[in-house]
Amino acid sequence: MPPSARELLTRLAPDFPARHVGEIHTDTTEFMSISAGDVIQLGARHFLVLRDEAERRFGLEDPKFWVKRCRNLETGNRNILKLVFHESFPMTIGSMVVTCTRSPRKESRILDLVRGDHRFMQGETVLDTAGNPVRILEVVAGKRLDEKIEALEMSHRDYFHTLFPDVLARFIEACEAIAWLHDHNEKHGDVRRDHLYVSYDTGRYVWIDFDYTFDFQESPFGLDLFGLGNIIQFLVGMGQHTTQSITPAQRKLIEAEDCSIMFANRIVNLKKLFPYIPDALNNVLLRFSLGANVFYDATRDLIRDLTKAHKALGA
To answer: Which InterPro entries match (predicted)?
Structure first.
């Protein structure tokens, strides 16, 4: 007879409070019923659930009940387990509509593809007893890039002339990683600034979360490119600048075409706010604006222009 969760934790995690001990789950289909104190068993491995993960965006916390922060009871290591959750929704970019779909099997495929490439989060997929592909992810030892930028206590001018050249160089490397995926006919699928971490050990930028895919008829990899555009706008601006956040004097300078094609209140023509931004860099930003006539079709075209912009900084 298999051990109960209490027997298992008494042996492998005697420090865990007995009053919080739950059940052992070998079938993760009903992920809402799996909570802190439960144990997920995958083959011979046992993972103690510590909490549900959550995304923190726009000052709000959005719980992800299908993503569990866990402790591997055999090794003591911390892991993130992503359970199967399907969803689909439309996204509007200007006059274009993109269908986004969450695909656990696509993320499993990406994890296999990028194994050993530390520009990407690492992990493996194991099937539970119901055949659900559970992704066992290594926790990235780092901090979100956007949080590092937002924590800076300096003027934009000082940031732009001292820190930004290195930030841009490392972001170009991160774009190379996305281009490498595209070369292998794969998409990241959810390119956002909170999905890019800075490694504590190496300073390398590391991509996480690959479980979205999208159907974008006009451009097969277009949503990844627009995501990269959103990130470079944030990095150039040392944060997000909106029509609501700027001064009345600055607001008089901004026209509708100076704003993002994805978010109509976000300013991408940052040269109007910071005149010392070189044209070579600002022109990249404008390719993601409502006033753009031409958009990027390939990540390597974006990389080419960002490389030229980096040289224009004189770094």
So the answer is: Kinase-like_dom_sf (IPR011009)
Pairing verdict, β 39-42 and 24-25: parallel
pLDDT at 60: 64
User: Does the structure show a pLDDT above 60 at 1?
Assistant: no
In a domain? residue 60: yes
Domain enclosing residue 55, as ranges: 5-83
Q: β-pairing, 123-127 with 96-102?
A: unpaired
Average pLDDT over residues 302-307: 98
Q: What's the pLDDT tens digit per position in 220-260?
A: 888 899 999 999 999 999 999 999 999 999 999 999 999 99
Same domain membership, residue 196 and residue 285: yes
What is the pTM assigned to this prediction?
0.93
Within-domain flag for 108: no
Q: Between vectors from CA 141 to CA 143 and to CA 167, what angle results, nearest 5°?
A: 45
Query: Hey, CA dihedral for 36, 105, 111, 297, is it positive or negative?
Result: negative
